[in-house]
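Q: Convert this sequence to C-alpha cells.
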Amino acid sequence: MTKIIGIANQKGGVGKTTTAINLSSALAHFKRRILLIDLDPQSDATRGLGFDSTLLSRSIYDVLANGYDINKVIKRTALKYLDLLPSSLKLASLDSTLSDKVEDKTLVLRESLKNLKKEYDYIVIDCPPSLGILNLNSMAASDGILIPVQCEYFALEAVATTLAAISKVQRTSNPKLGIEGFLLTMYDSRTRLGTEITTQIRALFKENTFLATIPRNISIPESSSKGLPVTLYRPSSAGSLAYFSLAREVMDKEFIR
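A:
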C-alpha cells in the first residue's frame, strides 16, 4: 500500500527540499520504491536530482493543468528505486490556468495520482514555502505531513502556521490527514539557540518529533550543487547518516500501518 508524505513548512529555507530529496534517496537505498513529486515552481528538487527543468518538455504542470498522462512525465533518476515527477516554473500560475469546470482545484493532484500505473511504496511531495493551491493539493493528497523545523529564531511561528493549514484541510478535503512528524534541521550542537529550539520542539510535540536530527553539514549543499542526493554523493557523511536514520524511522511506521 502506497504511503504519501507531503513535506511542508510555510517558511522558506528550513531544509524542506533538501529533506524531500534525501529522505527519498535514503528510502530508495533501502529498496523502497519511491516517487518524488516536485510541486515547487522553483524546481529545486528537480535540479537536485540532476534535471534541468527548463529543458524538459513536460512537467507536473501539464498533468495538473492539462490532464496529461502522469505516467509519461515521470523520470528515472540515478537511483534504481527512485523516480521523479519534475516541476516547472509554470506551476506558479496553476490556480489561474485551471479550468473553471474543475469542481475543486485542491483535489487535482489527488485525482491525478489515481492514474499511476507503477506501484510505489512511498510518494514524497516537495511543497512550496507558501500557503496556496499547490500546498493545499499536496495536503489533500497526502496521508501525513512531515514538517522540517529549522533550529533558529521564528521556528515555532512557522510551525503554528503550518499546523493551522493542516487543520483546515482536515476539516475540508482530507479528514484522514495526519502529522508524519517534526524534523529538526540545520542543527548545530555548538550553539545555545539550536539546543533551545530542539528542547522546545521535543517538549511540545514529544513522540511526534523524529529522533533523527539533520545537522549543518557541508556535504549537503555540496551534493545539491552536483545534482545528487547527499546519500549518493557522500554516503558516510554526517548529513547522509542523519537521513538514513530518518528513513529508518519512517519505515518503522510501516509495521504500525
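The first helix runs from residue 16 to 29.
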